[in-house]
Amino acid sequence: FPTRRSSDLKRPGNVLRFFAHCIKRAEKVKEPTINQAFVIKEFIDYTGLPEIILRDDLLISEQELANFFKERIKGQDDIILQLATIVQLFKAGLNDPSRPIATLLFAGPTGVGKTAATKALAEYFFSAGQKKNPLFTLDMSEFQHPWQIERLIGNTTSPSKLISHVRNQPFSVILLDEIEKAHASVFDMLLTLLDEGVITDRNGRLTDFRSCIIIMTSNLGVQSQNSLGFVNQNDKQVSVSAIKQHFRPEFFNRLDQVLCFQALSNESIVNITQRELDLLHQRDRIQQQNIRLNFTKNLVNFIAQKGFSQAYGARPIQRAIQKYIVTPLAHYTMNNLDHRHLNLDLIDGQVVISNKP
């Protein structure tokens, strides 16, 4: 079985049921032999865990791991190192098997990369085989009253969306956004989740979260900062102090790490803009017609300037791309047949698209 620890054997459900699934799958694809490679492939399809984590004979390159996160998270080198460490601990089998894989609190304002870091962690851990999105997000501002906890764990007749998701996809990343806005009763319920990796519903049935990564976000301690994000170590200490004051010690002590996101530099904002522009190549029309897009440096800087906000960080960059790039691009491709390689430039304050031979 492609796991190292006894607790892992239970994670895909009953072991016999999993092997029965392998047998049925082998019959369907007419595979004459069920060997280790076949079982590992089926386990990857079920969990989304990459083969390099499942197999002890494969080593993770620290540089490749860092590059994976650097491609997806800009301007947060300290965060990247800490995320890479989480992967390495799990690969080595040194994380506590009786708790979730990791319980993290991301501190920082809107638009500095907290969501990007969450998506990157979900992609690395659980996107190798799953066809469904392994990231499940809850806006905790919707749980400000004690009676709303029923929406979190479900009632006597049906489970909540969270419980249903984890029962169907036990290998997931659970994002609890703006955790500080939740009611105190929610924190009481989360104590068991963070400590023992389980939630008990109204019917007394346990849901196992030990194969999940739990991430919470908060902007506590940020409102008093003059800049977007944390500029220095003192700023980070102020934020951690605010978090400790808000949450009870028994809750704070159950967190594995508090990760403080630093302020975005101009270079980071440009890099984020370049990455968002590069992602346009993944859109259906661009892929179907094999269109290659080239963005000049002037245009990238222009979008970065238009898309960055002191209030919302890098979030508005996507709206700027929609307004200044996607809309003109749609008009151009609808009126020009030859658009296999397009050059997009900024001339006299206007976006100009031309066919590049």
Provide a descriptive summary of the structure in words.
Strand 4 (198-200) and strand 5 form a beta hairpin. The longest helix is centred in the last third of the chain and has 19 residues, at 317-335. It is globular, with a radius of gyration of 23 Å. With 357 residues, it is α/β, with parallel strands linked by helices. The strands form three sheets. Strands 2-3-6-1-7 form a five-stranded parallel β-sheet, sandwiched between helices. Strands 8-9-10 form a three-stranded mixed β-sheet. The protein has a two-stranded antiparallel ribbon with strand order 4-5. It has helices at 15-29, 36-47, 51-54, 62-72, 77-92, 114-126, 150-153, 161-168, 184-196, 233-246, 249-252, 266-278, 284-288, 297-307, 317-335; strands at residues 102-107, 135-139, 173-177, 198-200, 206-208, 213-218, 257-260, 292-295, 341-347, 350-355.
